[in-house]
Amino acid sequence: MDGMFWIAIAQTIVSAAFMLTGAGLVLAGAIGVIRLPDFYTRLHAAGVTDTLGAELIIVGLIIQSGFTLVSVKLILLGLIVFLTSPTSTHAVANAAYRSGLKPLLRRWRSDETRGTPQ
């Protein structure tokens, strides 16, 4: 087998690793949105994992597409996501705080669920 075959296999494996890692982070963020107790922690879980997960998926797609016009478009898309996702997350959190939504400042699990007496 020639060298181009092994390069194509390595390219596919590396790009799949990036895309699967990104998908795993997006899934972890979705679970965090479901499981966390208040708006601000849910927003943090969604914002952080969504940005990094999307960037890793885009990097995997860039590796898979090779050096083409598609990769240039994907790089621009990644730049837009990298700049707008944290900015929009901050804007939503700021709007919620200014509208009067206070963060949860107490323990969100009761003492009975942890097995300690009150």
What does this structure look like?
- The protein is mostly helical.
- The protein has one domain (7-100).
- The chain has three helices and no strands.
- Helix 1 (3-35) packs antiparallel against helix 2 and helix 2 (39-65) packs antiparallel against helix 3.
- Residue share in helices? over 70%
Strand share of the residues?
under 5%
**Low-pLDDT segments:** none
The total tally of domains equals: 1
Number of beta strands: 0
Radius of gyration: 20 Å
Number of helices: 3
**Broad structural category:** mainly alpha
**Multimeric status of the protein:** single chain
Q: Globular, elongated, flat, extended or rod-shaped: what is the shape?
A: elongated
Q: What sequence of helices (H) and strands (E) makes up the elements? A: HHH
| Mean model confidence by pLDDT | 89
Describe the largest sheet: none
| End-to-end CA span | 70 Å
Topology:
Layout: H1 3-35, H2 39-65, H3 69-98
Helix pairs in contact: 1-2, 2-3
